[in-house]
Amino acid sequence: MKTNCIARIQFQLYVINAISPHLPALKDEGSLPCPLKRQCFMIEKVKNTKVNRKEKIKAYIEIIRIPNSFMMGLAVLVGVLIANHEYFLNFRNYLTILSGFATGFFLTASSMVFNDYNDREIDLINQPSRPIPSKRIGEREALSYGILLSLIGIISSLYTGLYTFAIAILTFGIALLYNFWGKKTGLIGNFMVSYSVTIPLIYGAVMINSFTFKIMIFASMVFLTNTGREIIKGIADIAGDSVKGIRTIAVKYGAKRASIVAFWFILVAVFLSFIPTITRMTGLLYFILVLAVDGILISSVLTILNKADKEIALLVKKRILFAMFLGLIAFSLSFV
């Protein structure tokens, strides 16, 4: 059954590419062959639509995933807060803090651009409205944009020290390796993404020479939670990933088994969230906030366990991203 599905999708892509030069002759969506209506009609609209300056700027903003990039920049600051919240009391440290945020933001933004460039064929199936498949940003433009963002992030890391510069170079290298190789490896690729999501916390602590056990616990929670989220994302992208040969857990073993694996990763993260309170490394406010985070995470994985399909996976991955953002707030206020 799976082989037939993959073959059908590959055939559809072949037919779309074959008939795309003739699409302007088609008058409306209703005249298209039933199995290809949506894909072909979108190609026709792209071919006949000129991208104005406003739409171009919007596409450049959209492709860097502002919420994701901002959260990674914020995670660097959270790493500083966890390691030593008094560091923010000295005004002379603010240029270092700003440089740390810029490193996290721009390296994440560049990774998002390279990710979309590498996924441009898959996104014709999974996300055809994204900037590159919709032709709002050209392929060469995307590469140039990604390189520029990378340079800004790496140069920013130089200001904060050689150790942070080394971490930035390593993280950028892992992000590139993931986008052009690691993504097809499935769980290994998930771990590479989770490293990139977790490292800003560690970066912030290293930036002020204060790496602690508390940082290690929080970083482990983020790593495990994000790995679960990446596995759930694989459920949402089964169709395109199957065509591209990306060996996610969902593709290899099915959506149901993938949801079970994601459940266990996130459950371990929830258990770890109580260690800072038990060991009295954090205050009452952290405990209250982390209970809310844990509630969102548990309800999310129970939802995907109950019905592991694309629509639910897309909803759940957004909920988990919100829970991770709330978790960063809890980490930031852990000293209260």
TrEMBL record:
Main subcellular location: membrane
Compartments reported by the entry: Cell membrane
Keyword annotations from UniProtKB, A to Z: Membrane, Transmembrane, Transmembrane helix
InterPro entries on file: Prenyltransferase_related, UbiA_prenyltransferase, UbiA_sf
Annotated GO CC locations: plasma membrane
Pfam annotation, one family: UbiA
Organism domain of life: Archaea
Transmembrane residue ranges: 63-82, 94-114, 145-178, 198-224, 260-278, 284-306, 318-335
Protein name: Geranylgeranylglycerol-phosphate geranylgeranyltransferase
Annotated source species: Fervidicoccus fontis
